[in-house]
Amino acid sequence: FDILFAELRTEVESEIYDIYTIDLKNQDIVHRFSHEISMADEGQTGEIERFMVLAHRGMNRGWIKVALKNGDKCFVVRLCSEIAGLGWVSFVKSIGRIHSLFVKPQFRRLGIGEDILYARLLWLKSKRARSAFSEISRYNSSSLKIALKAQMKVSGQVFQYSPKGNLARRSPLRESKRV
């Protein structure tokens, strides 16, 4: 395996991901958008794969097509005719999971990540989701700030393990925005 997430901490080196949640049923979601956001379709699979490899080098490209086919949604912001950022949402039994937010480095600090987070939260609320959650690495300060701004709160944690404890070294791509 390349990566394993577990709820239990062991003596093996791990990276801590806090689980952030938001109660969508009892909370208003208000946001002023700065960017146009679209929802990707299966016709954009190749472009999304090429974009996502920037943040997730070893990813299985096949999951994008499967995820879209199975009802997961990918929210996209385009600037200058290219994908500037995107983020995914899954929705099962009135609970949403928001994940895999990535904004290209040259487009960061423009509010794209925040817009994508709020678009996913509003979409979940429109589907009558009770709550949403996201696993965010403690090293990912950009995503932490966005989650806190959206009034998400820590509700637990999971641990990421790699074979023989070889966690990837931090790099600008590794520390990408993921919410």
Write the layout of secondary structure elements.
Blueprint: E1 4-6, E2 15-23, E3 37-39, H1 45-52, H2 62-69, E4 73-79, E5 82-92, E6 95-103, H3 112-126, E7 131-137, H4 141-149, E8 153-161
Parallel strand pairs: 6-7
Antiparallel strand pairs: 1-8, 2-7, 2-8, 3-4, 4-5, 5-6
Your description of this structure?
With about 180 residues, the protein is an alpha+beta fold. About 20% of the residues lie in helices and about 30% in strands. The protein has helices at about 45-50, 60-70, 110-125, 140-150, and strands spanning about 5, 15-25, 35-40, 75-80, 80-90, 95-105, 130-135, 155-160. It has an eight-stranded mixed beta sheet, with helices on both faces. Strand 5 (about 80-90) and strand 6 form a beta hairpin. The chain starts with a strand and ends in an 18-residue tail after the last strand.
What would the keywords be for this entry?
about 180 residues, alpha+beta, eight-stranded mixed sheet, 8 strands
Summarize the structure.
Helices cover 22% and strands 32% of the residues.
Shape verdict: globular
Number of strands: 8
Radius of gyration of CA atoms, rounded to a whole number: 16 Å
- The order of strands across the largest sheet is 1-8-2-7-6-5-4-3
How many helix segments? Answer: 4
- Poorly predicted sequence stretches spanning 5 or more consecutive residues: 169-178
Q: How do the helices and strands follow one another from N- to C-terminus?
A: EEEHHEEEHEHE
Structural class: alpha+beta
How would you characterize the largest beta sheet?
Answer: 8 strands, mixed
Between the first and last Cα atoms, what is the distance in angstroms?
Answer: 23 Å
Write down the overall mean pLDDT. Answer: 86
Strand content: 25-35%
Helix amount: 10-25%
